[in-house]
């Protein structure tokens, strides 16, 4: 682990991502307001905010400082948010954030049998209260991150700075577990024309039922295979233009309010779309999705095609990199030779974090070997895959020879933290900050202690 001194500097810049996005895991807000801990400009930190976010940070496995230090970090972050909202170069995204909150709400709702069960589980009294909390967290996260990016946008580190960082913290750098480097190619099996027509015919039959008096909402609840909207009757609200895939959006915006489209093909399958409302750059729409789920024959055809590509690679007629660029359906890796990156953006992945299916396929391979073709899923769609083992790296403490990019990123983050801290310290004297008197014994740094302690 890093030393506590280095960690304290690092937590400041990471706090927004670590504690302002609990809805990506387990949502805890919804408690009654129990008092104001601090006011920063026109931003407020509630007592419940501190407890909820400390609890969440612990759930994520982070090293959480004491309540005083945690509040100090929150004040710093709220200052960033306050300044970001006043920064004319940071795009104001109120409508988009509201729409994202609605989508997250619907995604969470899809995991429960009904709305009441969900609200009870997350300790909210009303849907409005829960949506408002989601929007607040996303808004804080957005503005804080944008301000940090503005402050540090031209920051970089030289090789000498990376070396100096390593010399200072070498003994405290974390241990890397057993790691591997891998590349992959995956392909979505193509549906036959007959299969596509079957899906289109099913949607046309559903459309006939709607035209005959059935509600679009009830048909979506029964037939739609979109987990994010089916339980809500297929509804997406306040959708900004450019958010949905192009064929979906083009079809939706060419409709009159209340009108239903013909079946529309996208990468996710086939849709019936009903435009509910259009207002400026936003629109509400319902849809019914039938996924493009390949059958056994279509999977077999895709497997045969990918196996022939694998043979070309083995025979040296094509490199894995060339094959990934030409054939892979993974847009995130096809342009870098199919190289799969880890959570830190490097080309090394901890072996024990691999899915069991991937571990099984790679078992016994040596660097340069490829797996046989195997089936998997990606984005909730079936795929056929091959993987190449590029490297095996035994467990070790991070060092410059093996882990230069990782250490460079650590040095860069440290430098950014320091720049943001200096910027915050420079702004503190000019921003109204009031801290509740219950924190009068906290050992805040001097530039915070000069601010008033309210009753």
TrEMBL record:
<dbReference type="Pfam" id="PF00639">
    <property type="entry name" value="Rotamase"/>
</dbReference>
<dbReference type="InterPro" id="IPR000297">
    <property type="entry name" value="PPIase_PpiC"/>
</dbReference>
<keyword id="KW-0732">Signal</keyword>
<dbReference type="InterPro" id="IPR046357">
    <property type="entry name" value="PPIase_dom_sf"/>
</dbReference>
<dbReference type="InterPro" id="IPR050245">
    <property type="entry name" value="PrsA_foldase"/>
</dbReference>
<feature type="signal peptide">
    <location>
        <begin position="1"/>
        <end position="25"/>
    </location>
</feature>
<keyword id="KW-0697">Rotamase</keyword>
<keyword id="KW-0413">Isomerase</keyword>
<dbReference type="GO" id="GO:0003755">
    <property type="term" value="F:peptidyl-prolyl cis-trans isomerase activity"/>
</dbReference>
<dbReference type="InterPro" id="IPR027304">
    <property type="entry name" value="Trigger_fact/SurA_dom_sf"/>
</dbReference>
<feature type="domain" description="PpiC">
    <location>
        <begin position="177"/>
        <end position="277"/>
    </location>
</feature>
<feature type="domain" description="PpiC">
    <location>
        <begin position="280"/>
        <end position="375"/>
    </location>
</feature>
<protein>
    <submittedName>
        <fullName>Periplasmic chaperone for outer membrane proteins SurA</fullName>
    </submittedName>
</protein>
